[in-house]
Write a structure and sequence with these properties.
Blueprint lengths: L2 H10 L2 H9 L12 H12 L2 H11 L4 H28 L5 H9 L2 H41 L8 H21 L4 H28 L8 H6 L9 H7 L2 H6 L5 H4 L7 H30 L4 H5 L6 H10 L1 H35 L6 H4 L11 H14 L7 H28 L16 H19 L16 H17 L20 E2 L21 E4 L2 H4 L4 E13 L2 E18 L5 E7 L6 E3 L4 E2 L14 H10 L4 H43 L5 H9 L2 H30 L8 H16 L3 H30 L11 H4 L7 H16 L4 H5 L6 H10 L1 H19 L6 H4 L3 H4 L1 H8 L5 H33 L17 H10 L12 H9 L4 H22 L16 H16 L11 H8 L1 H16 L31 H10 L1
Antiparallel strand pairs: 1-5, 2-3, 3-4, 4-5, 4-6, 4-7
Length: 1115
């Protein structure tokens, strides 16, 4: 292999992915640019949820609504089990040809080649059959729309169907090649489109159906009514309803096929698989519940719809002709991108199988095109042509068409079951867990998965009409698969190079070129953690890294600088996968050969680190990924959401709060993308406050730091008061000041125990909040359907008193409420400075912002909007915070008597969590201010444990202003002090957007490529500019009610007092220190970057089973 070819691989991926792929014997040929969420998006997009449900309703409707709902739920449970079994394998050995590679790796010697060959062909043909199935369904949906427009008076011929089908596949092939640079962005957009279509359906269908003569079906009809419109017995008709989820939720192996284009594949693959299945399981169940509630009770009319699609008839019956056409067009659009995604996945499996020489024309299809950004363009052409040819079967009859499509289910189920079986039957001793592993549960999960897949293959071969089907109704799956397996067996029996199942020379010089280590590292500790200005090279290694199978980082220093107690080093990074090593007799490990990575782009090695002193010990990087996940989630589930959502409902109405919280949620998503990009590359405790100093102007950081610190001081103070109030709900024996003092001591004590204690406490508190809200959502669904409380609510409050409380004015008012409740999402950026693994933990937390907003905020608004009318006086008139909570009101109305106590307990947990987080964020902000000279230096001190004890004490002392609220004479002073925090949240978000824009401009000016960014903001630059403009607008708009007639001077001061205070702080520092706006070419974009080695700190091999289960739940 030429040096140029080797350099190509190192430019395409980072060290851990390169090393893991090299262990499996492959070189890096594809560009790794898919994040975890985008790997998930590939599978989720192929599943297409609602379009897939629509295309397979003919399997589930014949057995009645109960089969639709429970058939989906039950089958998805087993599919999730299969996903877990494959996630274990995908994390341990992530490669594009994973299924057949795992089979060959784990199988007994005499079965390696036959079984891996069988799996590879089954998977390849199954995926190509999936292309045929998805695009054929798309064409049928398009023609159903045409039939709609012509009122069912027109039907397409088979030749017309095939012509559009072939054109669709060719378009997908062209897009798959030409749109490769933005394909990962397209997948992210597909998530939004799919979820948006589901939400639109579950909202619109009940509203429309409730206005018809039939109305919405009862909960008893939805969950327990069974019919039988087949010639099979009723029990087997129910089992055949499983075919709908089996067909729909069946592309999760695409995450495996994208693994060589995924960043941090060992985590991206398993979480992509489980996320896609889990999302389809839950959202599909919700969708089918709504569809069953809105379907005509005359199921025969739905099955025999003149439009050719049951879902089209359902939309038509509930919403009318025009709305139904709109939904069908949206569904067809989503299905079009389903086809594009499965072409991508199928091409990667075809390319991987060709790379191992197992397919006809392998030498042609294994070539990776540099012209098209390192894509297997020829493999795309191959699967496109094959799909067009196979589609000719559609010209025969419907039985031939269904047989073609059955290749997907039967082929993929065989391909999934075989490696799982090989691992548990032959490969237990060979299996080495990856970042995701289910521990002792792994084997029983795998056994259950194999049993289910065996049943699924059998089920897919039954005709839907039986037990004596006609030739036209016969399921010819068994015939098609029989022919396929016979051809495979014949191919295996011919001894040639191609029938080895995978290349026999994998792992040798064909895929990698050993090279000697120029400067072996002899220190089994942290050798070369600091670059010596007199040396020409430095390195980072641990003893485990230097053993065979480990990896080594070296760097040739190009520039070192010592100034003001900081040591800066820019260098060229080399990463080597160790293949041989020995000891020198003193337990010192020396690598002797490795798969090397020549010097690449300049990186910073542990730069800009202050010299450590007893008073200036560094913050400890001990927060693990699970901590950041739950801190990010728990940070947005506060008492404001549990109580303030009632006020929002009263102001805007159910539709109004959905609109306002969704719009502000999108704004927060853009802000967090910007913050995530900077925080992942430069994870410092000062976060966006430090970024504003480095990327804009130090005076801006001065104003922002003090304003942001004071914001969280006021939040902390409010939480102390809230705790005193909610604890008083249970007893009035303890005075309020005693409650405040008690929690003051508790918070200060917990905070001084270290950041790991904070992370653990917040993890469990957040987990309780997540579980509690999930339970509420389930209860709300049952209550709405009439299962609890005895009456069906549905969407009646959307019509009486109405969907909007005060028209556009109410929506505008709730923008401010939404902004206030969303405050705190940005705290993830601050925790990055104490994260053990910011390169992966921070992006994961940032990427999940969309889902947190969608599930917890928009979900909360949706459910309270269903359960309560916006004019319910209890939302505002009650005396205690507990009684004000819409959760309490809704559960009490349903007859759940302990509701008040349960919700009060949840509020207490939320307030404790919010107070704990407020003290953490405020202390880290003022710590940065003290260390950077923008506050007294004593505030920047930490003890040996890395705890900023002075900042914690100072912050908690200032929060004692909460005691002022207990005095009638000092109450007004307290209100005035709290008012000063004002619009700080919007100011912070606007500054994050400004710093991100200038950060990107500096990267370009200084010649840095965006490839140095471990995480790249989606929708940049438009998303960032939208966030900036929207926040500036909200800063000035949020107090517009003060200008309504008559003008309110008090409201004006409350809403805008922070603006002049913030301006004074910025200008005062600017004139005092004579600061200037930082020039782009002089901007410091190097200091604070993390080393590759520093990010490999979390040990997953020694986790308990319980810990692994928790990791599955929280990511």
């Amino acid at each position: 292999m030429s040096p140029e070819a080797h350099l190509q691989g190192t430019e395409l991926a980072e060290a851990p992915d390169l090393e893991l792929l090299a262990v499996m014997g492959y070189k890096q040929e594809l560009r790794r640019h898919y994040s975890t969420i985008q790997v998930f998006a590939i599978a989720f997009s192929i599943m297409g949820l609602l379009p897939s449900i629509a295309s397979t309703l003919s399997f589930s409707v014949p057995a009645g609504p109960a089969a639709m709902v429970w058939g989906w739920f039950t089958a998805c449970f087993f599919i999730f089990i299969v996903g877990i079994a494959l996630a274990d394998l995908g994390s341990a050995l992530p490669t594009s040809g994973g299924l057949y590679w795992w089979t060959h790796h784990f199988a007994a010697d005499k079965w390696k080649n036959p079984l891996s060959f069988l799996v590879g062909y089954s998977n390849t043909i199954g995926l190509i059959g999936g292309i045929c199935s998805v695009d054929y369904s798309f064409v049928l949906m398009v023609f159903a729309i045409v039939s709609f427009v012509r009122d069912g008076e027109w039907m397409a011929s088979r030749s017309q169907i095939y012509g559009v089908y072939a054109a669709t596949i060719i378009i997908h092939g062209i897009l798959a090649i030409l749109a490769a640079p933005i394909m990962h962005r397209i997948q992210s957009a597909c998530i939004v489109a799919n979820v948006g279509l589901v939400l639109a359906t579950v909202i619109a269908l009940p509203i429309g159906r409730s206005r018809t003569a039939e109305g919405i079906n009862s909960a008893a009809y939805v969950f327990s009514h069974v019919e039988n419109h087949t010639s099979w017995p009723t029990g087997w008709a129910f089992m055949l309803s499983w075919l709908s989820p089996i067909w729909s939720v069946g592309a999760f192996d695409s995450c495996v096929h994208m693994s060589e284009e995924a960043m941090n594949a060992a985590k991206a693959v398993p979480y992509g698989i489980l996320g896609a299945i889990g999302a389809c399981w839950s959202l599909g169940f919700l969708s089918l519940c709504i569809i069953a509630a809105c379907i005509s009770t005359d199921l025969s009319s739905v099955l025999e719809s003149r439009f050719g699609q049951p879902i089209a008839q359902i939309y038509y019956d509930a919403l009318g002709r025009n709305a139904a056409i709109g939904f069908m067009v949206a569904m067809a659009t989503v299905q079009f991108f389903m086809g594009l995604s499965i072409v991508i996945a199928a091409s990667r499996q075809t390319w991987a199988f060709s790379r191992d020489g197992a397919l006809p024309f392998s030498n042609y299809m294994k070539v990776v095109s540099r012209r098209f950004r390192y894509q297997p363009a020829r493999a795309v052409v191959g699967v496109t042509i094959t799909s067009v040819i196979l589609g000719l079967l559609c010209l025969i009859n419907s039985a031939a068409t269904n047989a073609l499509f059955s290749l997907t289910v039967a082929g993929n189920n065989v391909a999934w079951a075989t490696p799982i079986f090989c691992r548990i039957f032959w490969g237990q001793n060979k299996f080495k867990p990856g970042a995701f592993y289910t521990g002792r549960l792994s084997t029983p999960i795998a056994i259950l998965a194999v049993a289910y897949l065996s049943f699924s293959v059998t089920l897919s071969m039954f005709p839907t009409a039986g037990p004596a089907p006609s030739p036209d109704a016969m399921n010819y799956t068994v015939v098609i698969n029989g022919i396929k397996h016979q051809n495979i067996n014949q191919a295996i029996s011919v001894p040639n190079e191609r029938t080895s199942g995978r290349g026999s020379d994998i792992g040798t010089s064909r895929n990698s070129q050993p090279m000697s280590v120029v400067s072996p590292v002899k220190d089994p500790g942290l050798a070369g953690k600091w670059c010596n200005p007199q040396q020409t090279s430095c390195a980072f290694a641990t003893s485990d890294m230097l053993r065979p199978g480990g990896w080594l980082v070296t760097a040739a220093s190009t520039e070192t600088k010592q100034e003001k107690g900081r040591r800066n080093c820019r260098g060229s990074l080399s990463i080597m996968a160790v293949t041989e090593s020995h000891t020198d007799g003193a337990d010192t490990i020396i690598p002797t050969s490795a798969h090397g990575k020549p010097p690449g782009d300049p990186v910073l090695l542990e730069s800009a680190m202050p010299e450590e002193t007893p008073q200036n010990a560094p913050l400890h990087r001990t927060l693990k990924s699970r901590h950041l996940q739950m801190i990010a989630i728990g940070g947005i589930i506060g008492p404001g959401l549990l109580v303030g959502s009632g006020n929002a409902l009263h102001v805007a109405g159910p539709a109004g709060i959905l609109i306002s919280f969704t719009i502000v949620g999108i704004l927060v998503f853009f802000v967090m993308q910007s913050l995530g990009e900077m925080a992942t590359l430069i994870p410092v405790s000062g976060s966006f406050t430090e970024y504003s100093a480095r990327f804009v102007d130090p005076s801006l950081a001065f104003g922002l730091g003090w304003a942001y610190w004071y914001l969280w001081v006021t939040v902390l103070s409010n939480e102390y008061n809230a705790l005193a109030l909610v604890m008083g709900y249970w007893t009035d024996v303890v005075p309020q000041w005693a409650w405040i003092l008690m929690f003051w001591v508790i918070f200060l004590t917990l905070s001084n125990l270290g950041v790991l204690t904070y992370g653990e406490v917040e993890f469990w508190l957040a987990l309780i909040k997540v579980i509690s809200l999930t339970v509420f959502f389930i209860l709300a669904t049952v209550i709405s359907a009439g299962g609890i409380g005895g009456k069906t609510i549905g969407f009646k409050y959307w019509s009486n008193p109405g969907a909007f409380a005060d028209s556009i004015n109410g929506v505008a008012k709730t923008f401010v409420i939404a902004g206030t409740l969303y405050a705190g999402t940005e705290m993830v950026g601050i925790t990055a400075g104490e994260s053990a693994n910011p390169r992966t933990a921070v992006p994961t937390a940032i990427r999940q912002v969309f889902w947190r907003i969608l599930i917890f905020y928009v979900g909360m608004m949706f459910f309270i909007g269903i359960l309560l009318p916006y004019d319910d006086k209890r939302l505002l008139s009650s005396g205690s915070k507990t009684a004000q909570s819409p959760l309490t009101i809704a559960l009490s109305d349903a007859g759940i008597l302990p509701a008040a106590h349960l919700i009060n307990g949840l509020i207490v947990i939320s307030v404790i969590s919010a107070g704990n987080s407020s003290l953490y964020v405020a202390s880290r902000t003022i710590l940065y201010m003290g260390r950077s000279g923008k506050a007294p230096a004593i505030l920047g001190r930490t003890n040996k444990a890395g705890v900023p004890w002075v900042a914690l004490l100072f912050t908690n002392l200032v929060a004692c202003i909460s005691f002022l609220s207990l005095s009638s004479s000092a109450g007004k002073l307290y209100s005035a002090l709290i008012t000063l925090s004002g619009v700080c949240t919007f100011i912070v978000w606007a500054v994050i957007a400004v710093t991100h824009i200038r950060f990107r401009q500096a990267l370009a000016i200084q010649g840095e490529d965006t490839s140095v960014l471990p995480f790249q903001a989606m929708f940049y630059p438009w998303g960032t500019y939208i966030a900036l403009a929207a926040n500036i607008f909200l800063i000035f708009f949020q107090g517009y009610t003060a200008f309504l007639h008559p003008f309110s001077a008090e409201d004006f001061v409350v809403n805008y007092i922070l603006l002049p205070v913030f301006a004074v702080l910025v200008l005062a520092w600017k004139f005092a220190k004579q600061t200037k706006i930082v020039k782009l070419e002089e901007m410091d974009i190097w200091s604070g970057r993390r080393e590759y080695g520093d990010d490999i700190t979390e040990d997953v091999s020694k986790k308990t089973v319980w810990t692994k289960i928790k990791d599955i739940i929280v990511g």
